[in-house]
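Class, study these two lines:
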Amino acid sequence: MLPWLADSRRARPSPHAPRPLFPTRLAGGLGLILATFALTMHPVHHSSSKNEAAQGLVNLGVLYYQEGDTVRAVATFEEALSTYPGQAEASRNLGIIMFGRGNTDRAFQLLSDAVRTDPSTPSTHFFLGGVYQRRGQLDSAYLELSKAVALAPEQVDFRFELAITLQQLKEYPQALAQYDTVIRLAPDDPSARHNFAVCLLNAGRLDDARVQIEEARRLGDTINVGFDSLLRNSRNPIRR
């Protein structure tokens, strides 16, 4: 699969919460995901099989992308799909690129095709969930992100986005359970602490929210002045 390419703007769980993961943290996974993919690429065989020919094109497209030639990568993935329609890796890789470009209609089509062909790859569900988020279809985003987390339970980014979606749906107990796991997996992430504090405040757990925001501050997060003042001066829980 291709790396985290997305760079979008979407609704935050709260005006006080930090920018969510899709536009920030995911861009940092480029090298790791590409390296992982490179280690698992199938060898290219001289064969008349359309599937193997398409797989060879997918491998070539990944190499183009590694070299920074996105135009040729896209063209090669398109050729792979022309050679073998519905090829899951080509659909997924091209869908992720389209997602990063903001072409959500094309991304939705490609990622939906990839999920139908290969429903066991967590990143496909993750980015399809991202498409639903951009469309404001939070219930559908929740379903896809839940599948991604079930397939890759130790992947922090997947859980973080699931927590944000649950928070937007005002399913605070479920969101808090996801944040608890995110904090366990990434205790030094200030953004996770900050968003956790926002969710705790929305759930009426003011003292716990203060603890988390202080941890975020200690880890170097810049706390919104208004949010900081609200936490310091509030006496009664805020429920929404």
Observations:
- Residues 194 and 213 are 6 Å apart (CA to CA).
